[in-house]
Amino acid sequence: MISRNDADAEPRSGAALAQLVGTALASAHGADSEDAAEVKAITEAMVRLLIGTPLHSDGKLTVVSLAAEARLRRNKLTHKHTGLKDLFYALVKARGPLPEVGSETARARAAKQQQGLTRVRAERDDLRAQLQLMARIVHVLEIENHRLKETNRNLEKQLADHAAVPDLTQRRRT
After folding, report:
1. Alpha-carbon separation of residue 139 from 128, 129, 133, 148 (angstroms)
2. Any idea what the Cα angle at residue 136 is, between residues 132 and 138, rounded to 5°?
3. What is the DSSP-derived secondary structure letter of residue 96?
4. How far apart are the first and last CA of the chain?
5. Weakly modelled stretches of the chain, pLDDT under 50
6. Under the phi-then-psi rule, with left for phi > 0, alpha for psi from -120 to 50, and beta for the rest, what region is 52?
7. What pTM value is reported for the model?
8. Distance between CA atoms of residues 85 and 63, nearest Å
């Protein structure tokens, strides 16, 4: 958490200012309210976008990207939390023009992360399918094992019944 002194030490830091304002607004709404959770999500998303480390969006400094980064619907920013939207635009404007290389790097990183996520999801789905197949195999083997045990019990019973009857062919003739 950023204190007031940290924000004063870096007055031009948009991320620090966003976090400071977000903390103040969240505490004003109450710690357990839905509005406080939305304000916290929006300000955390602002910080990530302003420092160039987006997790859930393309990294562009727009309200659409901010909403995606905060994992909220865009109308939460355009209708409900308009002050945070205005703050975001002011911080972006104060920041000045961004070099194209940084945005390309962020886009490339986001694309690479998206590809990795797609690969991991495909691997997860494959592992789920393998797990279901293995579960079916184990189930079939348990049924076969149960049947073999029953057959074994029946054979033992037949042998026990057979042992009670003397074998007359093996007796000696006297």
Report:
1. 17, 15, 10, 14
2. 115
3. -
4. 107
5. 1-12, 101
6. left
7. 0.45
8. 7
